[in-house]
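Section 3.1: Structural characterization of target chains.
Under the original work plan, the team committed to producing a structural model for every single-chain target entering the pipeline before any wet-lab resources were allocated. The record below documents one such target. The sequence was received from the expression subgroup and is listed exactly as submitted; it comprises 162 residues.
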Amino acid sequence: MPLDSLNASELQAIGAQLTNDSSKYENRADVEYQWAVKAYHHAETYSNLISSVDPKVLKLTRLDDDIYKHFRGEFPDLNVKELDVDFLKTPEQKEKWRKFCMQYDQQQVQDFNLGTLIRINSREEFSEQNSTLVVRIQFLAIEIARNREGHNDNLQKKHVPS
């Protein structure tokens, strides 16, 4: 079933299921599909947002300043322009990211550990080849950095009418 064939009620129902305690779920194809729909919807919404608003003034959370400062303090040399997915998934990086992420529990950032799609190359739009899975706080940290450091500016310029 194509993702764009779902109506708002179906997407809301899927979203409601995905906010439940993950330990209650088995690895079932229908649950994975529901997660994929939510992740796709989030990616599509974010893509529309950064292509229509100046990314430098975009605020993703009430904690953007703190997240950015913390992120660049922990990952000062991480290339956010083009992510090295293999590097992000090394055991050392996973542990470093886990410690970073756990500081943003549900009280700090809602759904901080929800699986989220992120673009690998910031100069390109979302696509199957240009996406990888991260948790929401990683997405926020990297995208806040991309917005502030000008790496998402080209997407907004692509969509501005001439």
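The CA atoms of residues 35 and 86 lie 23 Å apart.
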